[in-house]
Design a protein that fits this description.
Strand order of the largest sheet: 4-1-6-5-8
Strand content: 25-35%
Keywords: Hydrolase
Oligomer: single chain
GO molecular function, one term: hydrolase activity
Radius of gyration: 19 Å
Distance between the termini: 22 Å
Cofactor: Mg(2+)
Protein name: NUDIX hydrolase
Order of helices and strands: HHHEEEEHEEEHE
Organism: Aeromonas sanarellii
Number of strands: 8
Shape: elongated
């Protein structure tokens, strides 16, 4: 799907979900259910996703629709190289991280993800950026997400080359990045964050 179409369809799904949450009239409920079903069919026709898979994703959320929160750890070694992990699902590279779980704080979630994906213990020391995924050059993808990037410092552990979720982990120079998993992170974000740190800034980037 092209980005404008994906953003439009996501808005339609959000409207249907809000309608199903607050509507009491059975005829309105039926209309919102039909709107959602038609949108799912259109998404399936424009992507490689099966309607059942899209329906399963929609079923995970209820109530008033809000973006999900994805957290990513920005970790550098003494040479200033950036820690990336290689995803099993696509063989591409990204910052360690993932979705916040229920009960997680954003900082707690990023620390947990780093341990699970790299074997390293760390602490989150600075929120570098809070970005809206739709405002960056990610490929179109549901659901709508906000992405929190934390500067993290390694406190222990040992770097693993393989975990249940990843098939590689290594440090890379910012000017020699491997092929990135662009659903998760894009090169422009990494370069922006790297420059932000190099300049010694303490403010948080957003949008």
């Amino acid at each position: 799907m092209q980005l404008p179409l994906a953003a439009f369809l996501e808005q339609v799904l959000a409207t249907a979900q809000a309608g199903l949450t607050y509507s009491k009239d059975p005829f309105d409920i039926a209309r919102f259910e039909a709107l959602r079903a038609a949108t799912v069919a259109l998404i399936a026709s424009q992507s490689e996703l099966a309607p059942e898979a899209i329906g399963d994703w929609i079923a995970l959320d209820s109530g008033y629709p809000t973006p999900k929160l994805d957290v990513r750890a920005f970790i550098q070694n003494d040479a200033g190289h950036l820690l990336l992990v290689q995803e099993r699902c696509d063989g591409l590279w990204t910052l360690p991280g993932g979705w916040c779980d229920i009960g997680d704080s954003p900082a707690g979630a990023v620390v947990r993800e780093v341990v699970e994906e790299t074997g390293l213990a760390c602490r989150a020391v600075q929120l570098l950026a809070l970005f809206d995924k739709l405002k960056h050059p990610h490929p179109p993808q549901l659901p709508h997400a906000h992405k929190a990037f934390f500067l993290c410092e390694v406190t222990g552990g040992a770097l693993l080359t393989e975990t249940n979720e990843t098939q590689g982990a290594a440090y890379f120079p910012i000017d020699d990045l491997p092929p990135l998993s662009r659903h998760r992170v894009v090169a422009s974000q990494l370069r922006t964050l790297h420059a932000h740190l190099r300049e010694g800034r303490r403010d948080t980037l957003f949008d």
